[in-house]
UniProtKB/TrEMBL annotation:
Cross-referenced InterPro entries: DUF4218, Transposase_21
Pfam short name (any one): Transposase_21
Protein name: DUF4218 domain-containing protein
Protein origin, superkingdom: Eukaryota
Annotated coiled-coil segments of the chain: none
Domain DUF4218: 249-345
Length: 424
């Protein structure tokens, strides 16, 4: 016997769940949970947008002086400051939050900024000292950025950010006069949308319903090739740089110098986008890209802090649901089968009722077990799992074997003195 000790290093979750686990709402004018109250946001084309990425440029960068190319102002501010752990704890302790489940109809006071509650994680003694508590999920960020970018350059209805409202917004801000609405004809001049749309069968659903991994491949492999000769060069360059950014960010091995270069590149990309696309283009997902290299410096390669493995596991579990009225029961039943078969496959190579499980590698530290007689399987006592009697024949046989293993698991453990002794 021993005492198992566990430490929560960080949480991995999508952006809406980020608000729940961190206590900082990811909506509204202070949606960025890293910049907090210092994020640059504004109301454009009927929603909150997050601009001002020139703040991450060097102090003497020439783009800071340009106003017409950006939002109409020069940029004199430094990048948003980081909050120390003591500041966060002190602020959370000072704020008066409503009791649990009583916040539905209560307006949040302005002193609370975007804090909604004090997360339970802060009861862990080390939690406030962590540099990185919650990961921005690169998988969802990449998908949302891809959707926004492709929706705008292909002018897909419902996804494009180049709308009449966005053009009126440009006019209100007094920037990029060439893209303003033509009052006489009620049409707007060609802007960000390109003629790629003619090359793609949008009606055939070719660009709708893409899964996260489809976007991942498109973003990193196909997009830079596809747009190379179809869009103006000043639009192609930052998009290709963005594609390379995600490609390098999601690499399995990274050098620190590479990440520092990525941190520089993403600021350049966002600033160039600010010169090209309307303010409505800059959703919160666009903004949080600027923080991804910093998080990777703290957490290491992104493979350990994004949602792909979790989503795949959840997908596998969902497939095991047979009775939709009680999905948890189905999942638990399937998981017990998986665990017991894996146990037998690893520790008892001579089991003859399911030969394919012998492919599991044997632990090298254990001496090979002595040959044992095969476990007899009583197929008459075994019954099907779940309520799908019309399973194809091979599947049905497999189900009977599964349940036979469960019935015999006690015998299997008794037959394995070497394995159980070594564990104990
Ligand atoms: Zn931010």
């Amino acid at each position: 016997m021993f005492t198992l000790r566990v430490a929560v290093m960080w949480t991995v979750n999508d952006f809406p769940a980020y608000a729940m686990v961190s206590g900082w709402s990811t909506k509204g004018y202070m949606a960025c949970p890293v910049c907090k109250e210092d994020v640059t946001s504004g109301w454009h084309a009927g929603k909150v947008c997050y601009l001002g990425h020139r703040r991450w440029l060097p102090w003497d960068h020439e783009w800071r002086e340009k106003d017409k190319e950006f939002d109409g102002n020069t940029e004199r501010r430094l990048r948003p400051r980081e909050w120390s752990s003591d500041e966060i704890v002190e602020q959370l302790n000072r704020l008066d939050f409503a009791p649990f489940r009583k916040t539905v109809n209560r307006t949040r006071p302005s002193t609370h900024m975007n804090w909604t509650h004090k997360p339970m994680f802060f009861e862990l003694p080390y939690w406030s000292k962590l540099k990185l508590r919650h990961n921005l999920d690169v998988m969802h960020v990449e998908k949302n950025v891809f959707d926004t970018l492709v929706g705008t350059i292909l002018d897909i209805e419902g996804k494009t950010k180049d709308t009449i409202k966005a053009r009126l917004d440009l006019e209100r801000m007094g920037i990029r006069r060439g893209l303003w609405m033509n009052r006489d004809s009620d049409k707007f001049p060609d802007g960000y949308a390109s003629n790629i749309a003619r090359c793609v069968n949008v009606d055939g659903g070719k660009f709708t319903g893409l899964k996260s991994h489809d976007c991942h491949v498109f973003m990193q492999r196909l997009l830079p090739v596809g747009i190379r000769h179809l869009l103006p060069e000043d639009v192609v360059k930052p998009i290709m740089l963005l594609s390379r950014f995600f490609s390098q960010l999601t690499a399995k091995t990274l050098r620190k110098t590479d990440i520092l270069q990525l941190r520089h590149d993403i600021v350049q990309v966002l600033c160039k986008f600010e010169m090209i696309f309307p303010p409505a283009f800059f959703t919160s997902m666009m903004h949080v890209m600027v923080h991804l290299p910093e998080e990777e410096l703290l957490a290491g390669p992104v493979n350990y802090s994004w949602m792909y493995p979790i989503e795949r596991l959840l997908g596998e579990l969902k497939k095991s649901v047979r009775n939709r009225a009680k999905p948890e029961g189905s999942i638990i039943e399937a998981w017990v089968q998986y665990e017991s078969l894996t146990f037998c496959g690893i520790n008892h190579a001579t089991v003859s009722f399911f030969p394919s499980f012998q492919k599991f590698p044997q632990p090298s530290s254990l001496s090979p077990p002595p040959p044992l007689p095969p476990i007899p399987v009583d197929l008459d006592r075994a019954r099907d799992v779940g309520g799908t009697p019309e399973l194809p024949r091979p599947h049905l046989r497999a189900s009977r074997h599964h349940i036979a293993v469960l019935h015999r698991i006690g015998s299997a453990v008794r037959l394995l003195p070497s394995a159980t002794n070594s564990d104990g």
